[in-house]
Write a structure and sequence with these properties.
The chain is mainly α. The chain has a domain at 68-240: Orthogonal Bundle (MetI-like fold), CATH 1.10.3720. The protein has 13 helices and two strands, in the order αββαααααααααααα. The chain is globular.
C-alpha cells in the first residue's frame, strides 16, 4: 500500500498558529480571570465558581438576555424573508445585474460605528430625514426618549445594514440552480409560486442555513451600532448582552464577573447555534423524505 503524503498538513500550520494566538490563548486568559478575584495586578485570590454563581443570579443579566433573544429573533424574522424577496427581484444577468449588486452591497461597506452615526442623525427631529418626516406627519417619535422607538430604530438600522448580506447569499444560491429545473417547470405549467416552493426554496436550503447562522451570531453579539445610536438607552431598552458585558469589564472594572459572564455568553451562542443548526438539518431531512416518498 502506497504511503500517504502528510506534508500537506504543513500548509495549514500557519492557520493553526494564528488561531492559537488569536483565540485559544485569550480564551485561556478569560478562564483564568473567571476563577480569581483580581484585587490588584499583583494580588489575586482564587474564588472557584463564585463569579459564575453571582452572574447567574444577576437580574440585569436576565433582562439583557431577554432583550437580546427578542432582538435576534426579530432580526431573523425580518431579514431572512426580506433578503429572499430582494434576491428574487434582482435581475439575473446583464449590466443591470452588476449595477444592482453594487448598489445592494453598499451598506455592507459602511463601518459599524458610522452606521450608528448615520442613523443617529437620520432619526433626529430637527435635521434628520426620518425624524423630521415623522414629526411633520404628527407622529411622536423619539429614539432618545421612548424605549419602543429606540428598540425599533435599532432593529430597522440592523435590517438596513445587513439584509443585503442575506440577499447576496440568496442571489448566489439562485444563480447556481440549473436551468433544466426551470425548463421542466415551464413545460409542466407551474406557477411562479410553485417554482419558488418546489424548486428555488429547497435549493436555497444550504444558503439559508448559512445566512441564518451568520445573522443570528452577529445579531447576538451586536454592540457598536446601538452603543453609538442610543448608548443602551433610554434606560436599559437597548442594552444588549455585549454592552452589559462591556459595562461590567470596562465601566465597573469587575474583571472576574466579566470573565465569567464572557464564558457564559460564549456557551450560550454555541448552544443556540447548535440547536438552530440541528433543527434546520432535521427540517431539511424531513422535507427530503416527504419529497422522496411523494
Amino acid at each position: 500500500m502506497k504511503p500517504v503524503n502528510q506534508r500537506a498538513w504543513l500548509l495549514i500550520l500557519p492557520v493553526v498558529v494564528c488561531v492559537a494566538f488569536s483565540a485559544v490563548l485569550p480564551l485561556m486568559t478569560v478562564v483564568n480571570y473567571s476563577v480569581q478575584d483580581i484585587i490588584s495586578p499583583e494580588r489575586r485570590v482564587f474564588v472557584g465558581t463564585e463569579w459564575f454563581a453571582s452572574v447567574m443570579r444577576d437580574e440585569e443579566l436576565h433582562g439583557a438576555l431577554v432583550r437580546q433573544l427578542g432582538f435576534s429573533l426579530a432580526v431573523l424574522l425580518v431579514e431572512i424573508p426580506l433578503g429572499i424577496l430582494l434576491a428574487l427581484c434582482m435581475p439575473a444577468t446583464g449590466w443591470r445585474a452588476s449595477a444592482v449588486l453594487v448598489v445592494v452591497a453598499l451598506s455592507l461597506l459602511i463601518p459599524w460605528n458610522v452606521v450608528g452615526t448615520i442613523w443617529q442623525i437620520y432619526g433626529r427631529s430637527d435635521i434628520g430625514l426620518l425624524g423630521a418626516a415623522l414629526a411633520r406627519l404628527g407622529v411622536d417619535y423619539s429614539y432618545t426618549g421612548s424605549a419602543t422607538d429606540a428598540w425599533l430604530t435599532v432593529l430597522v438600522m440592523d435590517v438596513w445594514h445587513w439584509t443585503p448580506l442575506v440577499a447576496l447569499l440568496c442571489f448566489a444560491g439562485l444563480r447556481s440552480i440549473p436551468e433544466a429545473y426551470y425548463q421542466a417547470a415551464r413545460i409542466d405549467g407551474a406557477s411562479r409560486l410553485a417554482v419558488f416552493r418546489y424548486i428555488q426554496l429547497p435549493k436555497l436550503r444550504g444558503v439559508l442555513m448559512i445566512a441564518v447562522l451568520l445573522r443570528f451570531m452577529d445579531s447576538f453579539m451586536i454592540y457598536t451600532e446601538p452603543f453609538v445610536l442610543t448608548g443602551g438607552g433610554p434606560g436599559n431598552a437597548t442594552t444588549f448582552l455585549s454592552q452589559y458585558l462591556t459595562q461590567k469589564a470596562v465601566g465597573q472594572f469587575d474583571l472576574g464577573p466579566a470573565a465569567a459572564f464572557s464564558l457564559i455568553y460564549f456557551l450560550i451562542i454555541l448552544l443556540l447555534c447548535f440547536v438552530l443548526y440541528n433543527w434546520m438539518q432535521r427540517v431539511g431531512s424531513a422535507e427530503k423524505a416527504e419529497g422522496f416518498h411523494g
